[in-house]
Hints:
Distance between the termini: 132 Å
Strand content: 5-15%
Strand order of the largest sheet: 4-3-7
Order of helices and strands: EHHEEHHEEHHEEHHHH
Amino acid sequence: MAEINHFEYGWITPALSYALSVLGSALGLVCAGRIRTATTGGQRARWGLLAAWALGGTAIWAMHFMAMLGFAVQGTRIRYDVPITAASTAIAVAAVGIGLAIVGTGRLSVVRLLAGGLFTGLGVAAMHYTGMAAMRLDGTLAYDPTRVALSVLIAVVAATVALWLSMTVRRGLAIAASALVMGIAVNGMHFTGMSALSVHVHDRQGELAGTEVSGLLVPIVLAVVFGVVGLVYALLAAPTEDDLAGAAYLDARRSPEHSRPTPEPTPDPVGLRGRTTLGSPGTPFPSRRDTSSR
Length: 294
């Protein structure tokens, strides 16, 4: 068995992977919170896609490959199959998006939460092992079934908690604390799955297909940067709850009930308003007989 090093560059790769998972989790939770306040189906779909990209694309997929920068196997080079790597991205984003759709449509219930967490967790695990299948090296990969099962269980639990937080957490401090916890869960799932791996290096070295991890670094960094900038811009450009409340108030003020002019009071120069006067409805004029008898 070949010696495996998960931290070839020291603490820098796990620190960056954790930072990416926390950043993506925070942005994903904020975007998921906008799903609850959206007023139209189009707005809900838009915020759902942004939340899926933040959680699946940044917090999970980008974190995975940032951690893989520090992965090395003694005695062999490592390359990556680009189409399979791209497929792992699609799996992560789609799994989170479908999970958000399950828990975000209708009233949140335990059944919806468990179903969404199970689907999303299995999707996250599928992303991880699809990304591992994209590796090309002069050796044979083997996995410990017990640790693989443990990593899948961690993924399902972490996904369930993440979906529950995305539907319930709204305040800034709670979002920050939740993102820190989610970062620990995502990284825990990754390194648990990596600990299940063992490699038997071949005696004869051959030509490896695929792209070196350094060649994937620039596209990954650019995708993360533009993705984060786009998410931040979308959040800043979107109206807040106070803006929506103010717009609703102005619409109410423009409604026909409020726009109908209030009738002005008739002038009352001699102060007779409220008194019964001669000639008023219901008050007969005095007859001549009554007048002459006075």
